[in-house]
């Protein structure tokens, strides 16, 4: 029961549903960022997310509100509201109320997911939600992969930042996942609202392996704090999306998707079954992380090994930009007061350096 010292109202894109959850005409209740909301879809197919309460006398649109074409109609007195939250009809008056507006959130729908832009100051989106295919600029698309397998866990006591810190946490693989993987970071770029962490995979005990021999790796894009997309290449071919959305000031919903690559010319049932096994294994490994995160207490300042210092410090400093106070709690303030870290990796760090903990 550790309330994070980091704000649970960060700015950015956050998943509130999967696309399939909200079909045309559906109205669905949801709670995020400590606000009651409704997600609905117009008859023409546009997803809308807005605050739940009617501006007339406050009925909850998620209890009996229904979609009429492109608008939602309140169950109490029939007032109609459009996707921007504007009142467009009062059924017993010849003109709508143009002054009142229900807060409606910018929506991005991609990768079978519905994301909303959240910003406590009401600013418009100033960066995009990452796409698990287009984001990597490699010409890939969903057609190259089996349909995604998913995990959804609600109201866990964890903060989105914990999940992103996993991306720079090279030491946990052996202990959490029981895999002898030693990632070697090849890119840490924390300059914009999207940050990039790439690593190649080496294996413990294989001291003869040089960086040129590496045949597998992972590229990750963190699109703000809410969405992280990864591409695994080499011996495995998969894509993942982790999306963490604060529900209130203690808990978050966790959604995870994994796409397993199709092997060209091998689209038989056996290949499909193998992909399903592989996807289940990726999800199992993710749940191992979730188990840690959901009981974790944010350590601030953390006791870092030398090799961990650069990645964690850069990530925490980057994360601070998304918090309303620009600090996100004293952890980020601490990271900022440190001397500027050099974010350039002029050369890949060797495995022996990573393994040394002074
Ligand atoms: S409360 Fe919604 S129409 Fe009256
Ligand atoms: Fe992990």
Detail the topology: elements first, then pairings.
Elements: E1 12-18, E2 27-32, E3 35-41, E4 47-51, E5 66-68, E6 71-73, E7 80-81, E8 87-89, E9 104-105, E10 107-110, E11 113-118, E12 149-156, H1 160-165, H2 172-177, E13 181-189, E14 194-203, E15 217-223, E16 227-233, E17 238-246, E18 252-260, H3 269-293, H4 306-319, H5 330-337, H6 351-355
Antiparallel strand pairs: 1-11, 2-3, 3-4, 4-9, 5-6, 6-7, 7-8, 10-11, 12-18, 13-14, 14-15, 15-16, 16-17, 17-18
Helix pairs in contact: 4-5
The structure holds FE2/S2 (inorganic) cluster and fe (ii) ion.
Describe the structure.
- The chain is an alpha+beta fold.
- The protein has two domains: 12-118, 3-layer Sandwich (Rieske Iron-sulfur Protein); 142-315, Naphthalene 1,2-dioxygenase Alpha Subunit, Chain A, domain 1, CATH 3.90.380.10.
- It is 18% helix and 30% strand.
- It has helices at 160-165, 172-177, 269-293, 306-319, 330-337, 351-355, and strands at 12-18, 27-32, 35-41, 47-51, 66-68, 71-73, 80-81, 87-89, 104-105, 107-110, 113-118, 149-156, 181-189, 194-203, 217-223, 227-233, 238-246, 252-260.
- The strands form four sheets. Strands 12-18-17-16-15-14-13 form a seven-stranded antiparallel β-sheet. A four-stranded antiparallel β-sheet has the order 2-3-4-9, with no helix packed on it. The chain has a four-stranded antiparallel β-sheet with strand order 5-6-7-8, with no helix packed on it.
- Helix 4 (306-319) packs across helix 5 (330-337).
- The longest helix has 25 residues, at 269-293.
- The structure holds FE2/S2 (inorganic) cluster and fe (ii) ion (FE2).
């Amino acid at each position: 029961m550790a309330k994070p010292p980091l704000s649970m109202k960060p700015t950015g894109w956050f998943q509130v549903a999967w696309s399939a959850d909200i079909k045309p005409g559906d109205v669905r209740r949801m709670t995020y960022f400590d606000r009651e909301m409704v997600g609905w879809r117009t008859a023409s197919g546009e997803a809308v997310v807005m605050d739940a309460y009617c501006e007339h006398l406050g009925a909850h649109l998620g209890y009996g509100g229904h979609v009429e074409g492109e608008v939602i109609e309140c169950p109490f007195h029939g007032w109609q509201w459009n996707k921007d939250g504007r009142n467009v009809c009062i059924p017993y008056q010849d003109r709508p109320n143009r002054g009142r507006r229900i807060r409606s959130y910018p929506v991005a729908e991609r990768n079978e997911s519905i994301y909303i832009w959240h910003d406590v100051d009401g600013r418009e989106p100033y960066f995009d939600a990452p796409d698990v295919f287009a984001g990597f600029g490699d010409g890939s698309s969903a057609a190259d992969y089996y349909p995604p397998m998913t995990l959804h866990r609600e109201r866990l006591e964890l903060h989105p930042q914990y999940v992103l810190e996993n991306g720079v946490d090279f030491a946990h693989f052996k202990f959490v996942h029981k895999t002898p993987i030693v990632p070697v970071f090849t890119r840490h770029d924390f300059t914009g609202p999207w940050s990039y962490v790439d690593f190649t995979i080496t294996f413990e005990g294989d001291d003869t392996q040089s960086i040129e021999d590496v045949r597998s790796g992972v590229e990750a894009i963190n699109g703000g704090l809410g969405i992280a997309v990864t591409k695994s290449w080499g011996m495995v071919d998969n894509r993942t999306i982790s999306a963490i959305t604060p529900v209130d000031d203690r808990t978050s919903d966790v959604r995870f998707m994994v796409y397993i690559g199709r092997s060209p010319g091998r689209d038989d049932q056996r290949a499909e079954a193998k992909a399903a096994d592989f996807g289940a294994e990726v999800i199992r490994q993710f749940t191992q992380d979730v188990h840690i995160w959901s009981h974790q207490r944010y350590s601030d300042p953390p006791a870092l090994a030398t090799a961990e210092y650069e990645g964690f410090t850069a990530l925490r400093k980057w994360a601070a930009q998304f918090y309303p106070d620009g600090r996100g709690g004293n952890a980020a303030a601490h990271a900022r007061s440190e001397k500027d870290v050099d974010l350039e990796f002029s050369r890949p760090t060797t495995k022996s350096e990573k393994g040394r903990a002074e």
